[in-house]
Amino acid sequence: MRNMGDILRQAQVMQHKIAKMQQEMATKDFEASSGGGMVKAVVTGKQELKALTIDPKALEGGDVEMLQDLILAAVNEAARIARDSMEREMSAISGGIKLPGIF
Fold first, then answer.
1. What is the distance, to the nearest Å, from the Cα of residue 5 to the centroid of all Cα atoms in its chain?
2. How does DSSP classify residue 100?
């Protein structure tokens, strides 16, 4: 069995790797679209909406509820992509162990 010093050192190394990964992911952008590309959303790794693009054709029908649904779908999908990417990176660092409180 490992001694406590080795375990603490390993935990510190993992903590450093996690902090670095979170910093790197925060600078990445994740994009998704809906409505056949009529609405595009870009979300950062921090789960912040960075950009939203609406094709003028989406406004032609005058259906506000449809446009709202397209916006929600694009933003939620971009956020899901960002979250999944972060979870994959975290899994690679932690060896697949789920660490509570990280996300």
1. 34
2. T
Tell me the one-letter amino acid at 91.
S
pLDDT recorded at residue 13 = 84
Tokens representing 77 are 């999908």
Q: Are strands 29-34 and 49-54 parallel, antiparallel or unpaired?
A: unpaired
Look up the pTM and report it. Answer: 0.76
φ/ψ of 31, rounded to 5, equals -115, 145
18 close to 98: Cβ distance less than 8 angstroms? no
pLDDT in tens, 18-43: 888 888 888 899 999 999 999 999 99
Report DSSP letters for 23-86, one per residue: HHHHT-EEEEEETTTTEEEEEETTS-EEEEEE-THHHHT--HHHHHHHHHHHHHHHHHHHHHHH
Distance, CA of 19 to chain centre: 16
